[in-house]
Amino acid sequence: MIPRYARPEAADLWSPQTRYRIWFEIEAHAADAMAELGVIPKAAAEAIWAGGKDAIWDADRIDEIERTTRHDVLAFLTHVAEVVGPEARFLHQGLTSSDVLDTCLAVQLSRAADMLIEDVDLLMAAIKRRAIEHKYTPTVGRSHGIHAEPTTFGLKLAGHYAEFQRAKERLAMARFEVATCAISGSVGTFANVDPRVEAHVAEKLGLAVEPVSSQVIPRDRHAAFFAALAVTASSIERLAIEIRHLQRTEVLEAEEPFEVGQKGSSSMPHKRNPILTENLTGLARLVRSAVVPALENVALWHERDISHSSVERGIAPDATVHLDFALRRAASLMERLVVYPDNMLKNLDRLGGLVHSQRVMLGLTQKNISREDAYAAVQGNAMKVWRGEGRFLELLKADPVVSKAMTDAELEALFDLGYHFKHVDTIFARVFGEGA
Amino acid sequence: MIPRYARPEAADLWSPQTRYRIWFEIEAHAADAMAELGVIPKAAAEAIWAGGKDAIWDADRIDEIERTTRHDVLAFLTHVAEVVGPEARFLHQGLTSSDVLDTCLAVQLSRAADMLIEDVDLLMAAIKRRAIEHKYTPTVGRSHGIHAEPTTFGLKLAGHYAEFQRAKERLAMARFEVATCAISGSVGTFANVDPRVEAHVAEKLGLAVEPVSSQVIPRDRHAAFFAALAVTASSIERLAIEIRHLQRTEVLEAEEPFEVGQKGSSSMPHKRNPILTENLTGLARLVRSAVVPALENVALWHERDISHSSVERGIAPDATVHLDFALRRAASLMERLVVYPDNMLKNLDRLGGLVHSQRVMLGLTQKNISREDAYAAVQGNAMKVWRGEGRFLELLKADPVVSKAMTDAELEALFDLGYHFKHVDTIFARVFGEGA
Amino acid sequence: MIPRYARPEAADLWSPQTRYRIWFEIEAHAADAMAELGVIPKAAAEAIWAGGKDAIWDADRIDEIERTTRHDVLAFLTHVAEVVGPEARFLHQGLTSSDVLDTCLAVQLSRAADMLIEDVDLLMAAIKRRAIEHKYTPTVGRSHGIHAEPTTFGLKLAGHYAEFQRAKERLAMARFEVATCAISGSVGTFANVDPRVEAHVAEKLGLAVEPVSSQVIPRDRHAAFFAALAVTASSIERLAIEIRHLQRTEVLEAEEPFEVGQKGSSSMPHKRNPILTENLTGLARLVRSAVVPALENVALWHERDISHSSVERGIAPDATVHLDFALRRAASLMERLVVYPDNMLKNLDRLGGLVHSQRVMLGLTQKNISREDAYAAVQGNAMKVWRGEGRFLELLKADPVVSKAMTDAELEALFDLGYHFKHVDTIFARVFGEGA
Amino acid sequence: MIPRYARPEAADLWSPQTRYRIWFEIEAHAADAMAELGVIPKAAAEAIWAGGKDAIWDADRIDEIERTTRHDVLAFLTHVAEVVGPEARFLHQGLTSSDVLDTCLAVQLSRAADMLIEDVDLLMAAIKRRAIEHKYTPTVGRSHGIHAEPTTFGLKLAGHYAEFQRAKERLAMARFEVATCAISGSVGTFANVDPRVEAHVAEKLGLAVEPVSSQVIPRDRHAAFFAALAVTASSIERLAIEIRHLQRTEVLEAEEPFEVGQKGSSSMPHKRNPILTENLTGLARLVRSAVVPALENVALWHERDISHSSVERGIAPDATVHLDFALRRAASLMERLVVYPDNMLKNLDRLGGLVHSQRVMLGLTQKNISREDAYAAVQGNAMKVWRGEGRFLELLKADPVVSKAMTDAELEALFDLGYHFKHVDTIFARVFGEGA
């Protein structure tokens, strides 16, 4: 995890203390269920909760024990006994370490998903506000980086909003995928632990019961989880690339917020660089890099091998924490993005009206000019504009083929921006609901 | 696409003829809607259907035209005019090529998803049959490749069944992701085409309407699609690895079906190699390789660039066709897998009863021996078994600490396999429903 | 392999006929060596060459035989016997199929590398010619997409040339990695084949001897090979992205060649889209997608498993053929790239001289103004330019702090482009040698 | 970076203190060169060295300054001035931050490569020692996980040794790739800094001069670097998978060293799990995951964007430190690997002599039995062995076809292990040189 790209609230999900708390809860809830089943004394379960509920676990001490036992869960249980007292011997009966580890990971990933969904909500709210603000701000639509036809800046943002709406649904699915509890013993047969213990722990932790665990929770779930994060990261990248393009010197239709006192460059004081969105581009690559190892983690040997563990110690905190950071950064950025509608208009007009060429072509065909002739007329005049030999509207008016088919007024009507925006409302209603 | 790993039915989804048929349907349905709206003559729309409905499109001719126009959809439309006649000039009005291309891809990917879901059903049916057959076939559960505790072969298979059940749900979600129609014009504003045209085409093709398209359907959808395929491929790999392990000479608990007349090796005639599952392992890598380029396709520039196109020409057929092949091969293999219950039992007994060690340890603690003493007693005798100094049960009976705590009969009861299988039914009910 | 992105010469490397020819050569050279060693009759080796040297192998017939034997090399040998006659029984003695398959792959990958190196040479030649042509064509250097300081278009190209020089060296290393021959038998012990056979075949095919093969040539070699291709693909992407940026409507400093008769868009006739470089961007993603499966192929089980085979049937042809296509397309594009020096100058001047700000700042510090004061003066005036309140030079002349430190002539001298180009020659000499 | 998989010596390469030291050296060497060129006073350069040479830089203070300036190099320079005094104002003249950052990264990656090469040396030394120890330890060679023919454990290890020899060469190339220095200013034109400054710094730091930098060192170099690490990681994975297989309960030909006091499992005290090699398998996935983002970093926009930076803050420390850890762990493991030659022999004999089948087949064809008849005879008897109906040698002696062609003594000679090992020396000489 790169501290510079980690919010403390997010990083805390992966702290030793958080992990130990969850471990304790799993063990203590399991003890409750066992006490209920008569496997261990009820008083023991109560004593465990009493002694451990509010404990601050001593990570250094646990590390010290682990240096001898070389086993993290055993080291923790030894420390619990130090804190809670002799009743701790009733803990973990019939459980295997993975019951604790995998269920804990499920809790952590679920919480991470909740956090990421909240982040997406923040980002969506920011995009929505700006989309509505710029619902009818004209800007040029570009395909292949080349001016195409007019659109609005709000429509651009509506597309990103809809994409993050999908990201949110995918994250909700991802949460659903990983939110399962396994307390099933060494090879998942419940030989030494009653399935009702699992059911109890699952309910208390807000998890579903894993239908078949085999010491471990199957890793296809985690692969699907990280894939959802990766797609979300790519959606952030798409937004970031859009802004980076808009901030290019030659385009300058929008700019990242520039803090007072911030130095853009050590050597070129006039520069305002889109470093936030460039950073988001890089973070997207980092978050995506979790997908392949997560996929490679699926095919564990037989009932389990532990090759997935080191991978997850890396990708689980890194991908969730960096994606959280990226989503928050994107949200803050979108809230404060500086938009230049005047520059958008200037750019839109840059080609002397060429962005209306398709409309002119269609207009001509509606005047019973063949598609080929219309195409030729439009392309010919377009090329003149391209070479700087005039503005499109004037050239068309002067073109014999065109002027024979259309009056000047008819031609002028074809250059009306409103024509392009007549369905903006329809699209906004699809995305934001009626009335947006 | 590697022909050797392509079923004709699957490959056909991606043939030029299939593509042209879908293109025609999109254009002709759009024409219907335009006729209904009065934009083009109804007779034209009818003539188009009449002339093109059952046409076999001439791919060579279209290629020939494309060599001049350098534009695939225009080449197709020119050919349609050759076949359908002059009414074809009413086609494609207000549409952009991507309206056709992207909606066609949506149809193809949806059909591919349907096919893959059917494949998973076949595979699940095969696994279920074998799982029920071997519900109580004892086998050793292995963690880290080392014998752990008894389980049943049916339970192993139940785990794979549950995993493919999840794969099926993910593929259904993936289908949902990509099954959208966009008929929205050059930059998605519907400037020259009424949104009702899109609605009509979508309905006719069984697609949803894409809420915001920007000449293209956003590529986060496709990234999520290929990610679902990749996770499915990894689940196949897990199954394949399991079988490859079981077929190892030293294990030989199961074998791939061996055809009469098949030569396993040019040089070692006794060999029966798990080549089908090794092949599935390789195919899983191939299918997974679509994920990264699909993620890289998301961040297109502005309203679109066409960098995604060449990528999709590769990964869309390859990943779907090879995954279909892999699922079918896996299904056929599971149907005919040769299982050796005797060898499973022999292996289970291989460690002289050590697989019961945890149960013995728990049994001792229930006799008021401390966890540490129980652990020491079990570990000591286990090490003797390991060194070949006797079978576990006999050694335990002779151990002073153990024999003081337990009678021989009590010890023998701890070695009962049934103890481990008492919850098999519970797990089967979770996976296959009650009564499986 | 996507036919549209495959040159016939490249695809032919992977045709069945090419493969069978190489197989025959391997077997026949091995027969020569065995004859020399007295293992088989010399007459047999001669008869084999006589019968097979110019044979056109019947791929359909071999497929037919394979449907029975389910073994490709055995099917081929059976067919060789049909063509060459009974002496063919002396072929393949002591060999294992992989001796033939892996050595053949080494030949194919080596030839592919040779082809790719030739392609890079073509591309480098094109870039060099254009770099020298534009050695002193001024253009703005951009960091973060924002104007920074002047550079020349030739310098930009020199950077790409140097990068492809490195690509060439990496491809040469990649060729070296894979160009090994293994004729070592079932587990690589030479139990049934003399190492001198391997040495002879290696020499005849221009390969090195694989020091330790284990039925297969180790796959770390192939992973390194595909990694080299992937880095090359990324270098193509960098060039492609540069051109796509330069062709943006707002920038228009260069354009892809536009064929007479080519239609850029079905709907917007004025559009000239950088579709070649967008295509290169996509092809780069495709070529790169071979890296992960190639890395996953390395860890085969024990002496070998065959999981790598299906992967290589896909990635070996696809990655080499598509990279060849991409390099050729890039070379042709660079040969014919349309460059607009006037637009470069216009863009360079777009910020009213701000690109000279760092130089002004340095100039001020050399006049004993503190770095902080110089920074403040420059930034203040830069911001005015940014807001459209004047050109940089005039504002500086009017600034009291600046004008106190420098004369107008001194200031003007700081705006001289030549100042920035004084080391162009040094850099060109590094890249192209003296005198370029 | 996961602390648990980081050696302090490796992690220290990436500590703030190390980074600041390198930054200072770059700046101070540059100052020397500038003083030599008369650009700044010699006394200033000397004062800078005097004040900063042995300084411990205050990372917290630098962070504090950065919170205002939002620029890491400027913050550092401000702090240097605090420590070194006013002469520090002569630092960084004509430099851009990236000159410092990228050259520093080159130093760090070069040092990391040196460390990794040393690690590979350790691993190779361990493998070599064990290979020589087990040069003639018979073991079965396995293809597809199925017994094939005899080989020796030394030969297996020789293959891994040769692979790490290649890894070492690749790491040396990777070091060569990244070890370049760029001190060329804002867009790489040396506008404000003499190329001789770059040459001086490069020489002092043991780097080559980057022929064309464009504010940044081109990232194809780094992509090639991380690719070399990824291939090395996959070679570790191959070794790890081999050991994991050998340690399987049913195979048990080797075991990871087991520490006294170590608990293998909390619940199954007899278990010795190959957790080190499973961990290496996971670490290989982690190290490999750097490849894709490194490839995606290549295509920066124009002269540079900063998207690569966040990626490298993650992958540069993580991939180098975890690979170092994995190589050291692998070396230590190979030093102490517990090998069971008796079990190897037992397994080799497990198939009742079937591993000699190819040799028998060849023997029969040398007795003028046709390949088909020999194959049939061998396969028939092999199948009997397979079904447990006898040992191969005895069955062959009793077979009428075989016994007619060969005496019992001739048959017995075909079962001699020495036959398979006659070229072990040849292969060892290839790998370790003569006399190994």
UniProtKB/TrEMBL annotation, chains A, B, C, D:
Q: Highest taxon of the source?
A: Bacteria
What pathway or pathways are given for this protein in its record?
A: Purine metabolism; AMP biosynthesis via de novo pathway; AMP from IMP: step 2/2; Purine metabolism; IMP biosynthesis via de novo pathway; 5-amino-1-(5-phospho-D-ribosyl)imidazole-4-carboxamide from 5-amino-1-(5-phospho-D-ribosyl)imidazole-4-carboxylate: step 2/2
The protein, known as: Adenylosuccinate lyase
* PROSITE patterns attached to this UniProt entry: FUMARATE_LYASES
Q: What keywords are annotated for this sequence in UniProt?
A: Lyase, Purine biosynthesis
Q: Which GO terms describe its molecular function?
A: lyase activity
**Which EC number(s) does the record attach to this protein?**
4.3.2.2
The record's similarity note reads: Belongs to the lyase 1 family. Adenylosuccinate lyase subfamily.
Quote the SMART domains the UniProt record gives: ADSL_C (SM00998)
Q: Which InterPro entries match?
A: AdenyloSucc_lyase_C, Fumarase/histidase_N, Fumarate_lyase_CS, Fumarate_lyase_fam, Fumarate_lyase_N, L-Aspartase-like, Pur_lyase
Q: Which residues form the Adenylosuccinate lyase C-terminal domain?
A: 352-432
UniProt catalytic activity: (2S)-2-[5-amino-1-(5-phospho-beta-D-ribosyl)imidazole-4-carboxamido]succinate = 5-amino-1-(5-phospho-beta-D-ribosyl)imidazole-4-carboxamide + fumarate; N(6)-(1,2-dicarboxyethyl)-AMP = fumarate + AMP
